[in-house]
Amino acid sequence: MSDPIQAAAARSADIEDRISRDPGQFRVLTGDRPTGRLHVGHYFASLQNRVRLQRLGVPMMILIADYQVITDRDRPENLPEFATEMVADYLACGIDPEQATIFAHSAVPELNQLLLPFLSLVSVAELRRNPTVKEEIDAAGRSTVSGLMFTYPAHQAADILFCKANLVPVGRDQLPHLELTRTIARRFNERYAPIFPEPEALLSQAPLLLGTDGQKMSKSRGNSIALGATEDETAALIRKARTDAERTVTYDPATRPEVSNLVLLAAMCQDRDPHEVAAQIGSGGAAGLKQVVTEALNEHLAPVRERRRTLLEDPAYLRKILQRGNEQARELAVQTLDLVRNAMRMSY
Ligand code: TRP
Prior knowledge:
By secondary structure, the protein is mostly helical. It has helices spanning 4-21, 40-55, 79-93, 109-113, 115-119, 124-128, 131-140, 147-161, 175-191, 231-239, 257-270, 274-281, 285-312, 315-343, and strands at residues 28-32, 60-64, 100-104, 167-170, 200-203.
């Protein structure tokens, strides 16, 4: 049986080739949940890749997935603040608001309306067996699971298909969602009319960064370093990072995940080979390693953080970017919903 991750990686290599030949044939949609501030995991795994795609000339939609915040919590917290900070993070990393459309899905009613026909195209069994949703349910550790938790992958299909995006840069955890999106597009096209592309996943090539405790990096686990953290906060977080009892620093992710993760972080900042970074620290031990990581990260992020600070001095500008993005997204959503209604014979 073929491994779905390997298959996706092989397809991604082919996609990269097609992008370099004709970036205009693609429309990218990517997004983040505004559950907190974006962190260095987002930065290395996805924000840098978005900027790269933008520079190659690929049209891009960037979604602030605010409705998804309430999959595993009772209420969204600090949404306006997180949303503005996310816009600042995007721009500070190099996203150009003249080229990319940044929007929030709650602000696009016609996008959300696609959810109804889309839900009719998937079975409860299909929704139930989504491995990422299962993991999120376990991680949330709550006694009840909301209906939105089970259906959000179908909502995500609406996020992607409303603008006819055909390329979605993702981490591995998002592959099941993309498969469902393709299924929904295919079934809609077969049942009603050929409206939607079957979007492809572009797997991130960046190695996976873990949190400072060696677990999956996540805003809610408190093991992440925010892009907007100060240099001192960054130093304090790295000081607390877990290491191991062995003195000599090596890069060996399988047997020394925590130490290797710190080495990897420094290597990514310095654009060097992690083995080389580890060898240079050598007998410097955990303290030496942490000093190198702190300096490398603070230095690498300094220009991003500087731009971020400047941008946040003008929240009205950031809100304007988002409002304009919402309007642009809405124009696309109105067009698509019209097509959908016609195809379903629901235009009166
Ligand atoms: N589920 C994604 C996450 O948790 C966020 C998201 C929502 C998304 N809609 C999307 C990502 C559409 C890509 C495409 O990070």
